[in-house]
Amino acid sequence: MVGVDDVINKLSTVIDPDLNKDIVSMGMIKDLDLNSGNLKFTLELTTPACPFNEQIEEDVRKAIDELDGINNLDLNVTAKVMEGRSLDADEFMKGVKNIVAVASGKGGVGKSTVALNLALALSKTGAKVGLLDADIYGPSIPLMLGMKGTEMDVAMDQEKRKLVPPEYEGIKVVSFGFFAEQEHQAAIYRGPIISGIVKQFLVDTLWTDLDYLIVDLPPGTGDIPLTLAQTIPITGILVVTTPQEVASSVASKAIGMFDKLNVPMLGVVENMSYFECSKCNEKHHIFGKGGAEEISEKHNMPLLGAIPLNSGIMEGSELGKPVMITQPDSPSAEAFTVAAKNIAAQCSIQARKVQEEMQAETTPTTS
Length: 367
What we know:
By secondary structure, the protein is of the alpha/beta class. The protein is built from eleven helices and 17 strands.
């Protein structure tokens, strides 16, 4: 007669494709109960945005089907996002499990558009998401969301003395653009002041109960990326580029800076990757081809997504209507969803590394 040990041993053959670990050793099987051939347990996935969630669930059901003596399976599937930040993360922003900084070597590659739509795509999977517009000199997120500066009622928690971020379509948002006296007012500040503003937005905001905080960095390798990398333990950097060599070569320099700061690199997303003609159904590589692939190979980092060139993305950004909201079934929205799931998978991989580091520190060594 089949027993609990038989079930556990069988489930141990199911491997998470991202983490390359079996689901039992990963602690993904919860509340297992076996009674007279009736099996009940919870499969707790590492993130609701994992691209392999359906595959893992299917593999679990197949594994149980191979066991003799199981008459009925009551399987509850949930997800709990893993903590992907470094060992000293508890000192800062305890309510945030993963901080993903979106960077680029140069401007004009659509980095803010990518950051915004990735945040919305992650939120649509069921994850709890925040978005910080850290481009103090050129905050564009308020325009893209239709959340114009002086119209925003940004609240303060007087007891905790922290900023309460407003919400848009389920994501918590903070931007310097909310605080500008005029919509087109320039931020004329020197480096130390800019760094201080970024620190305040990070530490003095109630970023509570977030699975992912997406930080839209300004282009380049200036004060703000340095402040983020050196102040707050983050999960990793996502690099946005276009297929052009001029963009990919500058992006490589930004990657070099983060490498020197020992910040994990999650991968690269290629924006404006191609244009698909609706009449001929062919892909046209208007800005060239292979920029992100070159970065991926050169820096040994995964290519996480390719976003097509689409006038709807541009128009939506200018009108405050992101494509993930207005055209959720479009090829562009699908591309953002694929990229978001791949990013979530990379965060889980990084979280596994953090767990292994913690285990290594707590395991006594023998001489």
